[in-house]
Amino acid sequence: MPGGQKKVQIVIVGGGAGGLELARKLGARYGRANHDVILIDRNRTHIWKPLLHEVAAGSLDANMDEVGYGGHAARWGYRFFNGSVERIDRERRRVICAPMLDEEGREIIGRHEIRYDWLVLAFGGVSNDFGVPGVREHALFLENREQADSFRTRLLNVCLRANYRHEQGDHESRVRIAIVGGGATGVELSAELYNAAKGLRNYGLEVFDESKLEVTLLEAGPRILPALDEELSETVTEELRALGVRVLQSTQVTEIAEGAVRTKASGDIPADLIVWAAGVKGADFVPGLSDLELNRLNQIVVRPSLQTTKDDRIFAIGDCCSCILPGSERPIPPRAQSAHQMASAVFANLGHAMSGRPLVDFVYRDKGSLVSLSRYSTVGSLMGNLVGGRMAIEGRLARLAYLSLYRLHLIAIHGWLRGTALIAVGHVNQIVRPRLKLH
Asked: So what's the pLDDT on residue 385?
């Protein structure tokens, strides 16, 4: 730049739905002439988190839907750095990145610093174990692509074992899976497992089908899917039970042991695989990042402008933050739609801040909730302006609405032209007619 003036540097930590969308918008808007937009993520590819249950069940080949950060950055005018943030130096406006190691533990890039003028934290959250003993040691999680792939491998192994035992004469052999958490992830995974089991005969498991599967879904609250209306929640419960899922509500888990879930109400529930899908909190590393204000769940507290309470130059969006808007008693819920709306709000506020204009408070608009029970059914509720309130939907209409969420995600991260082109050539059909992938 003229006179040796440095570019305005905007650093985004986390390439999830919100972070990746924000990086695209900033890169497209400001380019590289006077600005330098940098996205930092420990992974090299992005996959939409609501698809992870399909990846885990083997119903979706993630390689067809993931987005490479490097190519995306080159297309949209920002820079991608593959790494993990270790600490934030607020006084010097630096993020310190941990050394990058290869698979054998050898250092590729040493610990180093990245300057920022504006910093956006968008690294998401993790499952909340609520202090239940044994969760971290014996349960599986579905928070990222790596964990989904690990679950898929272990799922195939236990299915192969059950198939072999059946061939050897043990006709009572079953695959027992316990899923803790009756939110969207737990419910959708429960249904998706039965869809995946139907296709296993094509993978050499001649005597294995959904009848050999025993799935138990445990929810501590009085009903699954509390974000939905009670009637819709009951509809989903009936659908799951019709598939064969054992739905246990008002069931508090007291411990996760090796091969069993221990509960107060139902005793021990044997399981070959245990998935923990209950609650969201900030990651354990968050308190060590800086002195930013946190809530009791390790989430970064932000003001309505989405700026952190201690630093105007640092924003936080998505599951890693806690934002209680004026007139509300509860934080904005940790959903994909929240991250999407926050990304748009921070994009606008960064523009205001860099031009010296007042920032605008974030306004959250609840678009409703949708839950897909694989190919069997879709139910949910939408905030319908045309009907003057919340509209309950089921069946084909709900399925179309569910698919539209992914279409909107594609447009958000790829832009209207490329996003609509991907939809037009059938990219979304990977959800409509997924190809089983268990190897």
From this structure: 39
